[in-house]
Amino acid sequence: MSNISPVVERALDYISEVRQGKIDLKWMEANSGGWGVKAMPRDDRGLGLEDINRVGHYGDVPDSGSKVGSMAPRGSEIPADMPSLGCYDINDKSLVWADNVALLYDEAVARQWSSARDIPWDQLKPLPEDMEKAMCQLCTGLTEVEFVAGDMPAKWLWHINHDFHEVKCFLATQIADEARHMEVFRKRALANGGGLMRSSPAQESLLRVILEAPDYTTGSALMHVLAEGFVLTMFRSGEMLAPSEVEKRIFRLCMQDEARHVAYGTMHLKYFLEKHPERAADIHEILRMGEEAIFGLSLDSSTAEPRAILAGGGVDHIYEGFAKLGGLYTKQVREYLHRLKVAGIDRTSQLAIPLELPAN
Amino acid sequence: MIRFPSVLWFEEMRALANSDPEHLRRLGTVDLALVVKIDSADRSSLFEIAFSGYRCTQVRELADLAAAAPDAVVIEGPYQTWREMVENIRAHGHADLNHTLNTLTIYDTPMRVTARNQLDTDLFYRYQQNLQEFFDNAAKVPTYFAESEQAHAA
Hints:
The structure holds two protein chains of two kinds.
Chain A: H1 6-19, H2 49-52, H3 101-110, H4 129-146, H5 148-157, H6 165-190, H7 201-211, H8 216-241, H9 245-275, H10 280-298, H11 301-312, H12 318-343
Helix pairs in contact in A: 3-6, 3-9, 4-6, 4-11, 5-6, 5-8, 6-9, 7-10, 8-9, 8-10, 8-12, 9-12, 11-12
Chain B: E1 2-4, H1 7-17, H2 21-27, E2 32-39, E3 44-52, E4 55-62, E5 73-78, H3 79-92, H4 101-105, E6 112-114, H5 118-126, H6 128-136, E7 143-145, H7 149-153
Parallel strand pairs in B: 1-7, 2-5
Antiparallel strand pairs in B: 2-3, 3-4, 5-6
């Protein structure tokens, strides 16, 4: 058997030793300091990530992640010959952490929904053509934009040290959330006699800024706080503009997911700025770029007009719709500024976009 | 018949909300203290509804907002708006498209949502489906209203 590799040969030797009664069992002496814990669920929600962080040293999240560069679980004993996998280079906790991240992961897992099962698709009714086209254009835009919040975390996820597994787990739920958002809006566009409409160059400009952010935190500030914050308010308005219970449910369920993402992003930015106040200028600069891009997008005809038609109740009432959306824009910006305040950043005087849209 | 608003009325809502544990597990966990503030000409009635995990855990009347949980989310509006919302839910079996919590609050009128900071306010968005379904239970509560705003205040 000359084609057997040394690895396979060692494994075969082990089988041979076991047959001869030579059992190792040294692993049973490992990590004695971590032995004897008994994590308990806090209530009937079951055993959460938060609960297992309350026992022993397992909840001690180091400021600097393990230098080994492996996928070894935090709190386990790491053998001296553990190889580095060479890809985990985000090792500073402050670059990814948020104090609410374990809670948000537990909540995300508990609040998953299905676009197939949880949307009352049978309640869709034919709409006037202008309204259906407006809804389909809105859904086309949302289908286009939603998965940036999957692609952006995915770009950084595999760089994050495994000692920060709570962040990795949460971002994984976010990617699943965004997959669901992308497909639910695509489904709505294709489910009521319409179809996908026009994709948007203006949207791509915003998406590029997010995807090309120079590091995770600036990308997160752009995506979680600015873009998803704006989308959160847009989903609130979507729920209000919805012509049927179907769209109302879609926007409401998506809104819930977005609010979790925004909560993580806001608290991550807060944690980051507490540790790196000198980086505030970088955050201001990336937010300035994002604000300009999102403002351009918000007032792109293929974004603004469908929403105005839905808000007004038809193309004949589009100006009434614009008036309604003007008030929502102000709310959108104010909520964004208030979230930044929670994160410890005041952009009121540096805002690159108007707080209110011109009345005339 | 149970008078709206009253602790008894919200207790009935709490019992209805907890009556289908399987459905609550499907909706997911909620950790929130929601204060319902019902404004009349000369006073406000305040009720705090606590949610934890998969259950609505407690209802209590508050003397004032200072007695609420520090991270409470407050949804407030005139008595007539609350009454109209409850009547709408009772008429349709659930809130119609114009009477959902989100629609009533999005322009900050006739209702509005406040909290100590935006992150807490965002809890109202994060748990929107649960909160809407909680209030949709009003369809099943045999309700009577004070004859007028003045009677409510009395």
